[in-house]
Amino acid sequence: MADRQGDGKPFDAECVSESGHVVVCGNEKGGSGKTTTAIHIVVALLKAGFSVATIDLDMRQKSLDRHIANRAAWARKCGVSLELPTRYDFVTRELDSTIETNFQDFAAFVRVVDELERDHDFVVIDTPGSDSYLMRLAHSMADTLVTPLNDSFVDFDVLGQVDPENYEIEGFSHYASMVRDARRQRREDHDGLIDWVVVRNRVSPLASRNSMSLLACVKQLSMQLGFRIADGIGERMIFREYFPKGLTALDEFDVVGLEGRTTRSHLAARDEVNKLIRMLRLPIDAQSRKLALSRGTWLSKSRELYSGNELHHH
Fold first, then answer.
1. Is residue 222 part of a domain?
2. Measured distance CA(152)–CA(217) in Å, rounded
3. Cα(176)–Cα(293) distance, rounded to whole angstroms?
4. Mutual orientation of helices 174-190 and 209-225 as an angle, nearest 10°?
5. At what angle do helices 133-141 and 174-190 cross, to 10 degrees?
6. What does the pLDDT look like over 166-183, one tens digit per residue?
7. Percentage of the chain surpassing pLDDT 70?
């Protein structure tokens, strides 16, 4: 892959390493804006001139795959050129949940990611809003883990529990513990780093006591778990309206076959996305090559972890 110099795009990186950077969008709770965040990361990278591959592990919804398919169909219909990633359709072994079958999926998924990152600058993986062995595996392979979180204590519960009176953190959730263990394993195996970024989506522009209390809890938890906090996307109709066409807030009206002018809401949404991309700091640095090349060692050490009871849902 050719090195690409920064040219005013929302990336603070001089080049991308020879092995691709793996970005995983994950959260065990649905409706947090995972897929919307993922598609905007993908399109932002493509518009910046990087090559991108995608894997949608949500076998039921396939929302990321459908968004990309809608994008390709709209481009053909309107005769316009739209940036498209390499979309890999990963298929698991039917409904057989035996240990051997799960491990075959495990090994196959690792091979797919290894192959894609050799030919692409970035691999973006969207995971389902539920626990599974492939979801946990994808998290373990991330160089950057993006966890979208709606601005409510209902969504915060996916990360931790708080005291209802003083809002002190009382414990970590199953998901937060899983990510913590995955990061610890990567460090122990090859001194690697998973940069975990919790993205606060749908934050109300009006400050409230509840919103401030929630932000304080997120900051408190970030100190305990070691994740970074980024501002995400707002509650905007534009993100829903564009799905059937496969478009994003980063696309220009006059280029993608839409009538009218770019609206104020569209521009605000674009600013939110560009700010988020900058806060993600993609790629981290040339260390991503070292992390990717060491996954073979990591895989050989992980068979026991992803065998037996660890492969089944909790």
1. yes
2. 11
3. 26
4. 30
5. 50
6. 889 999 999 999 999 989
7. 75
Burial pattern 112-149, b for ≥16 Cβ within 10 A else e, equals ebbebbeebbbbbbbbbbeebbbbbbbbbbbbbbbbbb
User: CB of 71 within 8 A of CB of 139?
Assistant: no
In whole angstroms, give the CA distance from residue 234 to residue 202: 4
What is the pLDDT of the chain when averaged over all its residues? 80
Confidence class for position 235, pLDDT limits 50, 70, 90 = confident
How many separate domains does the chain show?
1
CA 167 to chain centre: 28
pTM of the model: 0.82
Which pLDDT score is estimated for 132? 80
If we measure between CA atoms, which residue out of 229, 240, 234 comes closest to residue 279? 229
Contacts of 239 (CB under 8 A, 6+ apart): 33, 36, 233, 249, 269
Q: 20 by DSSP, 3-state: which?
A: coil
Which of these ranges, 1-10, 85-94, 107-116, 281-290, has the smallest mean pLDDT? 1-10
Closest alpha carbon to 221 in 180, 252, 257, 182 = 180
Which pLDDT score is estimated for 105? Answer: 78
How many degrees, rounded to 5, is the angle at CA 68 between CA 72 and CA 37?
Answer: 145
CATH number of residue 294's parent domain: 3.40.50.300
Class of residue 240 by CB neighbours under 10 A (exposed 0-12, middle 13-18, buried 19+): exposed
Residue 210 resides in a domain: yes
Domain contains 12:
no
d(CA 81, CA 209): 46
Residue 161 lies in a domain: yes
Helix then strand then coil, in percent of the chain rounded to 5, is 45, 15, 40
Q: Quick one: DSSP state of residue 26?
A: -
Which single residue is written with the structure tokens 């990360």?
Answer: 159
- Which residue range is the domain that position 272 belongs to? 21-309
